[in-house]
Design goal:
Elements: H1 56-69, H2 74-85
Length: 87
């Protein structure tokens, strides 16, 4: 009568059942050659997104009004309007 034992897991030599095997390495990166621009080709014009900005004078006037509505004094209002309009 021969008795054989069955193993639920096969542990490689030098390994441990508590250290799982390493995952396979990731695939190599895809290397693509970039497009070379032609010498006589026109450059693409970037599209400007967003709303057009008001003129500097319009921004100063709005900032002065905001400063006055906040109760700032004239000297404080001028400093506030300069900082506000340059944003």
């Amino acid at each position: 009568m021969a008795v054989s034992t069955a193993s639920a897991q096969v542990v490689p030599p030098g390994g441990s059942q508590f250290n799982p095997p390493l995952p396979p390495p990731p695939p190599p990166p895809k290397i693509e050659v970039p497009a070379i621009p032609k010498l006589d080709a026109t450059l693409p014009v970037p599209k400007v997104q967003g709303l057009p900005r008001d003129s500097f004078g319009d921004r100063i006037a709005k900032c002065l009004q905001d400063g006055a509505a906040a109760g700032l004094r004239p000297n404080e209002r001028s400093a506030y309007s300069r900082a506000c309009a340059n944003q």
